[in-house]
Design brief:
Length: 180
């Protein structure tokens, strides 16, 4: 789904209960939705459950979807975002603790990858919730500034400011220097 018009046609077909169109939507968006959720909840099983629920909710609400604002991708990420927020509320989890992710390769490669991931996740704990949401939606979800603004009900200027400040904090935490 490279073009907006192609996505619009697929959404229209999906709204008419076209199984191939629904499958195309799932295949196109699932990985990004899943990664966004996984980074947030730190559990593969929970991320799979919430991602699945995201697409079930999408199916239930698809007939009422209207093209407004940033569009379908933003709408779908909003569903995922709200489910993650609900999960945190239900579990009464507030922290953004470091996690261990399994990687393919040698034990040394896996340990190095886990260390790097944990350093980045640790740096993300320095961000406030809005900054963290913006970074995850923009970098993990691949949403545009406009789509991120729509998803989080913020202005585009606010998203740009939050992203700029968040990246500055993460660079400082990770002791990354820039050649300016």
């Amino acid at each position: 789904m490279k073009k907006n018009q192609e996505l619009r046609e697929i959404i229209k077909r999906a709204q008419e209960h076209d199984i191939e169109a629904l499958s195309a939507i799932y295949e196109h968006f699932f990985d990004r939705i899943y990664r966004y959720i996984l980074i947030r909840v730190r559990s593969k099983e929970t991320a799979e459950d919430i991602a699945g629920q995201t697409f079930l909710n999408m199916l239930e609400r698809l007939a009422g979807f209207k093209w407004r604002g940033a569009g379908f991708k933003s709408w779908l990420f909003r569903i995922a975002h709200n489910l993650v927020v609900d999960w945190f509320r239900e579990k009464k989890v507030t922290g953004f603790e470091a996690a261990t992710f399994r990687t393919v390769g040698s034990a040394e490669d896996s340990a190095l990858a886990n260390q790097t991931v944990n350093e980045v996740l640790s740096a993300l704990t320095s961000l406030n919730d809005n900054q963290r949401h913006v970074i995850l939606l923009r970098l993990i979800g691949g949403l545009s500034c406009r789509e991120t603004a729509q998803t989080l009900a913020l202005s585009e200027a606010n998203v740009r400011t939050l992203q700029h400040r968040a990246l500055a904090i993460v660079r400082k935490e990770l002791k990354v220097t820039t050649n300016a």
